[in-house]
Design a protein that fits this description.
Pfam families: SusD-like_3, SusD_RagB. With 541 residues, the chain is mainly α. It is built from 19 helices and 10 strands. The strands form 5 sheets. The protein has a two-stranded antiparallel sheet with strand order 1-3.
């Protein structure tokens, strides 16, 4: 589906012109209106493609990591990530207003489509049902994001007027969640499986995507039995789609492997038409980046196990603090750039990245850590999602995966453990499968060992962290686990390049505060409450 219709611009003109019409019974002949736009499948598809383009943002995808303990947004406050992580925000924060409007704009497009697509009388009935299901999925996705951040939010399933929008009240979260789940069930009924789409439609929403998103919604609500049952529909039943782990963890995120067997839902980009350049401010400067605006933390790096399956703090792990990146979980090298990292360039040549002060033998020393420089404030850069085929300034059209099969396995493992049912069979299908794909070979790292439910919980949660690192999900996990009050209180650290007298030499990158009394829910945007007196505020704000 890497294509855009010329009708998209026409649809945006339509949105503007509809509000300007004075006589509702007359249709101007020189512009698209409500009464003359909905005449062909192509025009309807243009509106649906607009809804797709509004579903999620690459900026949210990357910078949400900076709102968690995985990364630090150290230059500026991109997408409000630094403020959110540090707890230094209020209802006027731009990100909060922006995301509220972003999701409700997407909902409006979906509602307009659903209310008008039946005007197209020449469309194939099965195609129309599928397109309606796609729109219902996208609308459900928006409401899921809204209730995840804000809890109670206004819920409506039709396009409302400006006057109505100024008097709408918040709907209880439980009711919003129920709506989302029912919409996903309904959408799944009319969506095809992933293997049924032709190449021209690759990337469209599938039955498997509806089921996987439902599992995520249930996961965030701790409805463990339902999570397990929903995941099993994708793990044990090919009638809902055919998915498997892609053999290479590194290759999973490379452009030549788009639409691989692990992808369930992705954010689509198109060369020269819809691209992003986040890596211009995430990659090492020595390979062409401008500065660093999002840096992995030492806390993330420390979460990667040794290749024998032990934590770095475990007795007998073999961890060497002076040589910390050897014999580690192979996913570390595929995700995080560290001192003496061998960066593979598009021509397959190697660029050694020097981040430790005094380690670079060159003259410019662009990536060496120094307070106040444009280099990484933690001594780390990001490798995952680097596109070797990107254009100047790292302009990339590489799709960003929103849900992948590995996440289904991790959701299943977590749910089974919370049900006290995580046994060797479940372990082998989930954690062992992920570690095997990652490149672990030592039996202690791969094989199930009886442990308490608490210990297994910590193992599964950490596995989720390292498998999905820098993919924008960590912030939601620490909030639903209610661990944000621990991991977002105190210093976020960088590599051991600081003074030995402070935190054993690990860089103090960012001081953070998380108030458990209010920060688990975002405040309703100040400007929204100024125009709508029926919008109540969340506790503590």
């Amino acid at each position: 589906m890497k294509k855009y219709s010329t009708y998209k611009t026409a649809f945006l003109v339509l949105l503007a012109s509809l509000s300007a019409c004075k006589k509702l019974d007359l249709a101007p002949t020189n512009k698209f209106t409500d009464s003359n736009f909905w005449t062909t499948t192509e025009k309807a598809n243009a509106v649906l493609n607009t809804a797709y383009s509004q579903m999620f943002s690459n900026d949210y995808f990357f910078y949400n990591e900076g709102a968690s303990d995985n990364a630090y947004n150290g230059r500026g406050d991109n997408q409000g990530a630094a403020s959110l992580a540090a707890g230094t925000y209020d209802p006027s924060l731009g990100r909060i207003k922006q995301e509220w409007g972003y999701h409700y704009s997407g909902i409006k497009t979906c509602n307009i489509f659903l209310e008008n697509v039946d005007r197209v009388t020449v469309m194939d009935a099965a195609l129309k049902a599928r397109m309606k299901a796609e729109a219902r999925f996208i609308r459900a996705f928006h409401y899921f994001m809204l209730e995840t951040w804000w809890g109670d939010v206004p819920l409506f399933d039709k396009d409302i007027s400006i006057d109505e929008s100024k008097n709408v009240a918040r709907t209880p979260k439980a009711q919003v969640v129920d709506f989302v789940l029912k919409e996903l069930d309904a959408a799944a009924t009319d969506l095809p499986v992933n293997t049924a789409y032709k190449d021209a439609d690759r990337g469209r929403i599938t039955k498997g995507a509806a089921i996987a998103l439902k599992a995520r919604v249930l996961l965030y609500e701790s409805r463990w039995q339902e999570v397990a049952i929903t995941c099993e529909k994708l793990m044990n039943d090919n009638s809902n789609g055919t998915y498997s782990l892609f053999p290479s963890y590194e290759g999973l995120f490379l452009p030549q492997n788009e639409y691989n067997s692990e992808v369930i839902l992705d954010l689509e980009f198109v060369p020269d038409v819809r691209t992003y350049s986040n890596f211009f401010d995430m990659a090492p400067l020595a390979v062409g980046a401008r500065l660093n605006a999002l840096a992995p933390t030492q806390e993330l790096v420390d979460s990667y196990l040794m290749d024998n399956g032990k934590k770095i703090t475990d007795s007998g792990s073999g961890y060497d603090e002076n040589n910390p990146y050897v014999n580690r979980d192979p996913r570390l090298t595929n995700t995080v750039v560290y001192n003496l990292y061998k960066w593979k360039k598009p021509d397959n040549s190697i660029q050694v990245i020097y981040t430790k002060p005094g380690s670079d033998p060159g003259d410019t020393k662009p990536d060496e850590y120094a307070p106040g420089k444009v280099s990484s404030p933690t001594g780390y850069y990001t490798r995952k999602y680097y596109d070797p085929a990107s254009a100047v300034n790292f302009q990339s059209a590489l799709n960003l995966i929103l849900i992948r099969y590995a996440d289904v396995l991790l959701m299943y493992a977590e749910a089974k453990n919370e049900l006290n049912q995580l046994d060797a069979g479940v372990w082998d299908k989930t954690v062992k499968a992920l570690r095997t794909r990652a490149g672990f070979t030592d039996a202690p790292a791969l094989n199930f060992s009886a442990a308490s439910q608490t210990d297994l919980r910590n193992i599964v949660r950490n596995e989720r962290r390292v498998e999905l690192a820098m993919e924008g999900l960590r912030v939601f996990d620490i909030r639903r686990w209610r661990t944000a009050e621990t991991v977002l209180n105190g210093w976020a650290h960088g590599a051991k390049f600081g003074p030995a007298s402070v935190d054993n030499g690990y860089i103090r990158a960012n001081l953070r505060t998380f108030d458990k009394g209010k920060n688990y829910l975002w405040p309703i945007p100040r400007d929204e409450r100024a125009v709508d007196p029926n919008l109540t505020q969340n506790p503590g704000w």
